[in-house]
Amino acid sequence: MLSTRVIACLDVHGGRTVKGINFVDLKDAGDPVEQANLYSKTGADEICFLDISATYEKRKTMLDVISKTAKTCFVPLTVGGGVNNLDNFCELLNCGADKVSVNSSAVYNPKIIRESSDKFGNQCVVLAIDAIENKAMPSGYEVTTHGGRKNTNLDVLNWAIQGVRNGAGEILLTSMNADGMKTGYNLQLTKLISENVSVPVIASGGAGNPKDMVDVVLKSGASAVLAASIFHFGIHSIFSVKKEMFKNGIQVRGCEN
User: Fold this and answer.
1) Which of 72, 104, 163, 167 would disulfide-bridge 145, Cβ 3.0–4.6 Å?
2) Active site residue 155
3) What is the pTM of this model?
4) Is 28 among the residues known to form the active site?
């Protein structure tokens, strides 16, 4: 049985880690290189580095920051933001990323999933989906791009299934309605996707405490939990999350088995 992963997310804007609600009203949360180093030493199974303004500002991900982060990070590093083609993919992997996350670019150019999967292996390809509630969609959720700024008229479930079929090895699923709210993950959304795709689903958006992470694994089938605010601002530690998960019968790394 695979261990459930606890992932620390670094939303980066202007070279600094930030956190807000629905990617707005951003507050400075520290230096990403220092934080990646800290999290890798204190039990994070992975670090997710998201350059949240790269696509909106029409620029590439900050390669220098990625390189410095990778050198101080001793756990797998996933990087996303501003990835538009295979050259971008290759640059990030060469800078030390273990996986590359595609979001907006995949919506407007779906073949990037297949091309990157064929060239680098599907284990390197993470399809990030920013979902909002929309009752007009068959699943009740719509895909958004550009950090939730643009609607796409794409159904989340259909897009997730298509993405996996095209070669995505993992899905990073964010509920934009819950992001930064610290009121819990969207269990319905996460369950909908995890039950209908054959790859791991990372739950993102809304984590407020360790119990939220337990619930999204046991009730919704998430393979990994991702959080930012509760770690950055010292509300909860990675260890306290793993302790609660282990207490509830979830296999995690770093706890006695």
Assistant:
1) 104
2) no
3) 0.90
4) no
